[in-house]
Write a structure and sequence with these properties.
By secondary structure, this protein is an alpha+beta fold. The protein has a domain of 70 residues: P-loop containing nucleotide triphosphate hydrolases (Rossmann fold, 3-Layer(aba) Sandwich). The chain is 32% helix and 20% strand. The strands form 2 sheets. Strands 1-2 form a two-stranded parallel ribbon. A hairpin with a 2-residue loop joins strand 3 and strand 4. The longest helix is centred in the middle third of the chain and has 16 residues. It is globular.
Length: 107
């Protein structure tokens, strides 16, 4: 799994020795390694380079197609567009639901 995320060379380091992005990749690797039925992801691409973020979102999309439910919190329209159902919240309250194709112009 570490090789899949490009961090196998960091396997002997402590968390404090990893960058924020590397810590984020380790957390995602830990979450998906056990093939869970549900993943709760709060800004999973927040500390990552754009390419790494896209790879994570593609992985989530693949896992979802394979049956894993993913609840993903994000401020990014680009990341939200990977979802099949997008629920918008405002001040902790439901503010509507939109379809991914409605975000296409906002990326």
């Amino acid at each position: 799994m570490l090789d899949r995320f490009g961090i196998v060379g960091k396997k002997d380091l402590f968390p404090s020795q990893l960058s924020g992005g590397q810590q984020q990749l380790v957390a995602i690797a830990r979450a998906v390694i056990a093939s869970p039925k549900l993943i709760l992801a709060d800004e999973p691409t927040g500390n990552l380079h754009s390419t790494q973020g896209e790879e994570i979102m593609e992985l989530f999309k693949k896992l979802n197609k394979e049956g894993t439910t993913i609840i993903h919190v994000t401020h990014s329209d680009k990341c939200a567009a990977y979802g099949r159902r997008i629920i918008k919240l405002k001040d902790g309250w439901l503010d509507g639901e939109i379809m991914p194709d409605q975000l296409a112009g906002k990326q």
